[in-house]
Specification:
mainly alpha; about 240 residues; Fic-like fold
């Protein structure tokens, strides 16, 4: 991926974003957030369709025949994203307290959130096994240290690493994937980029890219994937310019 092309598009977006039609921005933002919640929960097995997700979030209605936990997953994910946006607007850098709070919101009415696991966990179909609790505590401590001290070549690399390393460590019993995708977007948005949504249809490519990092420490596949998604987002906004 040519990151200079991405930076050029970001610069173009920054130059015209104040003049973009408010109606276009509002409608696209609403559509993106709906799809983001749908995709992020569906990747983890939530069975609500995009239309059912819309009914839950925009109309406040339940969906017959769906487990209550799945309804809560949708509502909680949207709530976590709204808090994320507020913390970014307040100028807060990503830290451990924010990550634990995001996980607590994601797990509301499902399980107690924001608490690191004290049991072993396994990822079905993956070559990588998350570290045992004793190793996990050391690794998550190092994660937060690197989060503040490590230098990255680009914001895309920072965002990709934040997601890939956190989900590799798998510090929570459940909800690591949703948390990882949220904190990846936190890094993007806090550094002036647009949020991205990994489509459920690309989950195999997504999982393979994360596996390459977990097993081989190869971040390039995942960073390239995020860069492509970011460019698509920028193209959407650049296409909103008044004709």
């Amino acid at each position: 991926m040519n990151y200079q092309v991405l930076l050029n598009k970001l610069e173009s977006y920054n130059q015209i974003k104040a003049s973009l039609p408010d109606a276009s921005i509002k409608s696209y933002t609403q559509a993106f957030e709906l799809e983001y919640t749908h995709n992020s929960t569906a990747i983890e097995g939530n069975t609500l369709t995009l239309l059912e997700t819309k009914v839950v979030l925009e109309d406040g209605l339940s969906v017959g025949g769906k487990p209550l936990n799945e309804i809560y997953e949708i509502i909680n994910h949207n709530n976590a994203y709204q808090y994320l946006k507020k913390w970014i607007s307040d100028g807060l850098a990503l830290n451990e307290n924010i990550i634990k709070d995001l996980h607590s919101i994601l797990m509301d009415r499902i399980m107690i959130g924001g608490i690191y696991r004290n049991v072993d966990v396994y990822i079905s179909g993956a070559a990588h096994t998350p570290p045992s609790p004793s190793d996990m505590y050391n690794q998550i401590k190092n994660f937060y240290l690197e989060l503040t001290e490590r230098k990255f070549e680009s914001v895309i690399e920072l965002a990709a690493w934040t997601h890939a390393e956190f989900v590799r460590i798998h510090p929570f019993v459940d909800g690591n994937g949703r948390t990882s995708r949220l904190i990846m977007n936190y890094q993007l948005m806090a550094n002036g980029f647009l949020p991205v949504s990994i489509k459920k249809e690309t989950r195999l490519e997504y999982f393979n890219a994360l596996e390459a990092y977990a097993v081989e420490k190869d971040l390039s596949q995942f960073a390239d994937m995020i860069a492509v998604l970011e460019e698509e987002q920028l193209d959407k906004y650049l296409g909103m310019r008044m004709k």
